Amino acid sequence: MDSALSDLKIIDVGHYIAGPYCASLLAGLGAEVIKVERPGIGEGSRQLGPFPGDKPHPEKSGLFSYLNLGKKGITLNLQSSWGREAFLRLVSQSDVLIENYEPRVMSSLKLSYEELQELNPRLVMVSISNYGHTGPYRDYKGFEITMNAIGGIQYEIGEPDREPLKLGGDQMQFQAGLVGAFAAMSAIWYRNLTGLGQHIDLAIAEIAAIMKGAPSTYFQFSGVKRMRNGTRPMRDARPGEPVIKSRDPGNLYPIAILPCKDGYVCVDTEAESQWQALCEMIGKPEYKEDPRFIRGRRGRHADEMETLFNDPQHRERGFFTTINHPELGSIEYPGHLFLMNETPWHYQSPAPLLGEHNREILVNRMGYSELDMRKASTEGAI
Predict the structure, then answer these.
(1) How many beta carbons lie within 10 A of that of residue 15, not counting itself?
(2) When you count CB atoms within 10 A of the terminal residue's CB, does the N or C end of the chain come out lower?
(3) How far apart are CA 159 and CA 79, in angstroms?
(4) Per-residue pLDDT reduced to its tens digit, 93-105
């Protein structure tokens, strides 16, 4: 066995980021992942950039190509009788099903976990949604910025006298995919012990609520209410103290985000080891003994600290992987999340073209005839 998960068969009916990323992580560990898309138009992220030359093309989306590395792709119309029957046959042969639609979608297609479990009791189904499948917010709409807000993250990000900010990019979606992969493997381990699959109900809002060190827990233990403190965070107000609204440098907590030649670096200058290393790195070892910068005073003199760095760490560890795509050519993608010496992380193929593996999966593996395929195509089922 050359891959850790080479015996797992996974169906990915996810769209955009969270579900596809979850499945992609498992594909990187060797699982066979079959991505099921809508006939004709495919999954939504095919329409999102970046695109080469900024020219939209469903086979050239940078987002889609990254999130679907290592997968095989088929098309099925799950609202058609033929497509649904083929999907159920695929489910009966699979270990894991990953989806990230609104809670009402799979049940409206009569593909809920309860219905699929009757067909395959060993099935592990990962459902990722904004608020989960239960609770008063179950059917509410939500976006990345909504998740940042409901999790309390935005309350802490930005300048204290300005509007709150969301985390950059789509971090909640990627975090949800990462947690989903961990949850799927936990359920697979339980299934291997008991023979029973289970449903994983993952709410992105709950993941957001524990980001940045769980502010609610911080408040319960310390009585401190965190706030927006900008790039040089101020010391949190202690119980009984007024909340600091100004940029009084005497109250700056010495975590600095400093400009570099190729971006920014964050340094906790209150941590003595980081401060000592920073002084050496910027060529100012004398700062280590300078009375202006003894511990407890560094925040007052933050304007005097700048630095440069260039980090070759990712290259040394082989983090990036180069994969050839039939439409995009040779592309370098972010790779492993960790290193395994016996079963290394490896994407064996690029993201699939739309319906690329229809014949391999539906005919060669599942036994449909060429006549069946022509009929299904005519009916818009594939």
Answers:
(1) 19
(2) N
(3) 49
(4) 999 999 999 999 9
Buried b (16+ CB within 10 A) or exposed e, 76-100: bbbebebbbebbbbbbeebbbbbbb
Q: What is the largest CA-CA distance in the chain?
A: 84
List residues bridging with 264 in a β-sheet. 259
Under the phi-then-psi rule, with left for phi > 0, alpha for psi from -120 to 50, and beta for the rest, what region is 161? alpha
Helices assigned H by DSSP within 253-361 = 272-281, 313-316, 358
d(CA 166, CA 142): 14
- Burial profile 50-67: b = 16 or more Cβ within 10 angstroms, e = fewer: ebeeeeeebbbbbbbbbb
Amino acid identity, position 138: R
Work out the number of other CB atoms within 10 angstroms of the CB of residue 341: 5
Strand-pairing partners, residue 331, are 323
What would the pLDDT profile of 328-376 be if each residue is shown by its tens digit? Answer: 999 988 888 889 999 998 888 999 999 999 999 999 999 999 999 999 9
Burial status of residue 289 (CB atoms within 10 A of its CB: 0-12, 13-18, 19 or more)? exposed
For residue 322, the one-letter residue type is T
Q: What element of type H or E holds 117?
A: helix 113-119
pTM of structure = 0.80
User: The tokens 């608020």 sit on which residue?
Assistant: 131
What is the rounded distance in angstroms from the CA atom of residue 219 to the CA atom of residue 209?
A: 13
User: What is the C-alpha to C-alpha distance for residues 377 and 380, in angstroms, rounded to an integer?
Assistant: 5
Burial 311-333 (b: 16+ CB within 10 A, else e): eeeeeeeeeebebebeebeebeb
Domains and CATH numbers, the chain: 9-210+315-378 (3.40.50.10540), 231-260+263-304 (no CATH)
8-state DSSP, 214: -
